Structures are given as C-alpha cells and as structure tokens.
Amino acid sequence: MIFHQPVLLVEVLNYMNVARDTGYFCDCTTGGAGHLLAMLKKTRKAKFLGIEWDQDAIIHAKNRIRPYKDRCFLYKDNFINLGLILDRLGIKHLSGILFDLGVSYFQLTTAKRGFGFDRNGVLSMTMSPENPSLRQKLEHTSRSELISILKAYGDVRSHRRIGSEIYENRKKMRTTFELKQLVEKVTPKRFQNKELHKVFQALRIWVNNELENLKLGLAVAIDRLEPKGRIVVISYHSGEDRIVKRTFRQMHNNGQIRLLHKKVIKPSDEEIEVNPRARSAKLRVGERCGLS
Fold first, then answer.
1. pTM of the prediction?
2. Which domains does the chain have, with CATH numbers?
3. Run of H or E residues at 258
4. Averaged in consecutive runs of 10 residues, what is the pLDDT profile of the chain (292 residues)?
C-alpha cells in the first residue's frame, strides 16, 4: 500500500530543525507517515504528534511508526483542531509543525474513494466519512455556485460549460466515470486531460473545505509555536500556496514570524525525475518570533 512518496524530504528535515532533538513536533497531515517516519529516524528524544483526517491513512501510519510508539502519538482529526489536541495533552507550544497538503497516491488510486478519474468509483471524494460526499453536495448546490467552484478552486478553462453540464446531470450521475464523460463531452480532446485534473481537484477541495481549513489551521499552528519554532508548508495548488504566502507575509509584517526564505522552495530536477508527483510542490517556511 503506497500512500505518498515524501516530497522535499531533505528540505523538510533541515527546516523543521529536528536535529535539535528536543521538544514536540507535529505533522498535521500525516498521510502514510513518510515525512513523520523520517523525522523519527533522525531523532532519539524528540516527541511527535501526527494528525490525519483519513482513517485508512491513520491505520497505515500506525503500523509504520510502531517502533517509535513511545514518542509518537497519532490522532484521527482535522488539523484545525490542533489547539484542542494540544490542550488535552497539556502541551503549550511546539518546536516544529509540518503541513504537506494535497492528496496521497493511495487516495487517488483507490476507486472507492472517488478522488481520481482513471478508476471508476462512487462520487465520494471525502477525506473523512463523517463529511457529505460529492454526490450529496451536488444535490444541494446551485448552477452559479458550481461554476464559481470550478473557476476559483481549479482554474477550469471551460468552467461555465462544464459547470452547467454537471449541474444538469447532477441527480442521475453516480460514478467518477460518469463525471469524466460529462467533462469530456464538452471539452476539446486536446484539453481533456488537463481539464479533468482541474475539475476533479476543484470538486475535491470544495467537498473537504480545504482552503478554509488551511486558513484556520495555519493561524492555530503559528499561535502554538514556541520562540524559534518552525512551520513548514508544502502545497501543490495555486490557491493553497496563495493562502500560505499571504498568511506568512501578514504574520511576518505583524512580527509573529520571520520568513526563512522570501521565495518559494521547489523540488530539484533530480527529485522530479524520480518522483514526478513532486513537480508542482512548493515549500514555504517561517520561524516564530519571541512571544509577547
């Protein structure tokens, strides 16, 4: 079972400053525990928290970090609840916090999850079964809202035409292949693959409220960093990166964090060759200033 080959791993280990080997660190998007396991292997004393919304990922991650279970604790939750988790544990501040956004290889390639268009599955796309599925959300949306979602969350080229087609067929559409066929029906062949990626991405972001969650999660995370604690964020979507960039800039201007790199950090050509999914990754890092 492959969840995600960790992207920008060398950079994450460096900027999270785990070499200090003290304090608490948190991976707010544990996934298959690729980054988390690497940080555990790099340390002997530091303690780690892992937060993950996806039940399948939590089960997989627990097996992977089993040798380190005495200093690594996993929680099935949304990272917007980081503050509540820390309060329950009696932890005031963290030494480092990681967000690796987006979806995993396992999610994209598991048909029953409905994240991808190359395998037929139900119209789900939920990170957590407690959330409404894509099909349920489509039943209660308007044509104009759907068109706006495709434009804002996916930069879909033919957002009006595709949004209207999905809206007209939303009640009888049942599977990812049916959604795929609707997109292909109104899209020129040379643009189909790119449009499909953007449509499925936009709908996934909408179903899971990902951008709003990110805004809340970043604010909570930075608030719980100790002085000189680090926050590292890897994003794969322009909307995500825009939120991270604006949040970091605002908090830098307010004196809450200092930017360790003004420009975004991207994977090397060598990493992209080994792991093509890293191509769109962008890493930003900030360090907490002294607390008032």
1. 0.92
2. 9-105+210-288 (3.40.50.150), 132-207 (1.10.150.170)
3. strand 257-259
4. 76 96 96 94 97 89 94 96 97 97 70 80 86 92 96 93 96 94 94 94 94 96 97 94 96 95 93 90 95 60
